[in-house]
Amino acid sequence: MLDHLFGEGIHTGSLTLERRKGETRQFGRDEPAARLTIHDPQVERRVPADPDFMLGQTYMEGGWSTPDLRTLLAVLMGNFDGAEPGGGRRLMTSVLRPLQQWNRRAASRRNVAHHYDIDEWLFRCFLDTDMQYSCAYWPPGVTDLESAQAAKRALIRRKLCLRPGQRVLDIGCGWGGLAIELAEQAGVEVVGLTLSEEQARVARDRVREHGCEDRVEIRIQDYRDVPERFERIVSVGMFEHVGARYYDTFFAGLRDHLTADGVALLHTIGRLGQPGVTNPWIRRYIFPGGYIPSLSETSAAIERQHIGVTDLEVLRLHYAYTLAAWYERFQAVRERVAAEKGERFCRMWEFYLAASEAAFHHRGLVVFQIQLAMDQTAVPLCRDYLHEAAAPGA
């Protein structure tokens, strides 16, 4: 079954398949060249039966290995689109998506804890020093992760059009890096929201270390329970956890919590194609309740709440570069992670990073930065202000 799958499907790049007894077969002849070694014969039955789930599952179990996971996944995703054909895809989307995104308050807290309440040290192992766990920004001349994340924060700061003394709501503040920078660099007051106990603890410690307790407040609070209004709202890497059935609730809350002359910025992973469903392996092991929106879904929800889109930027491949940097950093400390959390966890985590990178190259994933305002004059009429001080950290 596996020979048939690869023989029919691989037209770009090449794959060498090796079995336990030393038997090898090659599919395709071009670069990039990948290699897959099968250790458990059941892999040849399980993967073709359910590729989207079983490829990651059997890798976690040690059923197969490869000398270069990123290249292998690039070859596979470059040749297999992972889509259900025609009506099957539409049926899967309409039936499964609502069930996969039942993100009511209690479920949201459980889903966040599943991923973000993992030990802090793990994230410090592969993230930049500011612990930015979202897409970096790679303008010309920027080649390292620290500078790319600084450039991302600076771009967001410019898009918010901040003025000293304003109050900012940071929905999904992570470990607090953006909130601290906005307070220090723009002289604003920030309320950061998270549902993760670990993130809140670390963020509060960092706020104290920076001496900005009077300007940054970190809350463990659902975005649906915020009572105040703010001049600015920002959300980075959180919208993917909202779920399509709650988009109207999210944007209604954004509208209600934004002052009449306020500005908001939404930074989210998005898909270039039509609405779909979350990859089953990612949903089970990495982001339960997660969903990557299409632009049409997001725009329709914004329009229903009568909020104006004042700027839209699509960051193409920036997240692929970010994930590649994270993968390399993770590999540098893999031995330590394996000692602490076991080989199965390591294989899960590296598969998640490598598969996500390949998806941004081959599955139409991008990042949307959507600037929003109730008043179309709330931001400058031309985009020059976004580039006047575009150096990293500016």
TrEMBL record:
Question: Which species is this UniProt entry from?
Answer: Spiribacter aquaticus
* InterPro entries, per the entry: CFA/CMAS (IPR050723), CMAS (IPR003333), SAM-dependent_MTases_sf (IPR029063)
Q: Name one GO biological process term.
A: methylation
Q: Which UniProt keywords apply?
A: Lipid metabolism, Methyltransferase, S-adenosyl-L-methionine, Transferase
- Highest taxon in the source lineage: Bacteria
Keyword Transferase, does the record have it? yes
Protein's name in the database: Class I SAM-dependent methyltransferase
Q: Pfam families, per this entry?
A: CMAS (PF02353)
Checking CDD domains in the record gives: AdoMet_MTases
Recorded GO MF terms: methyltransferase activity
* Similarity comment text for this entry: Belongs to the CFA/CMAS family.
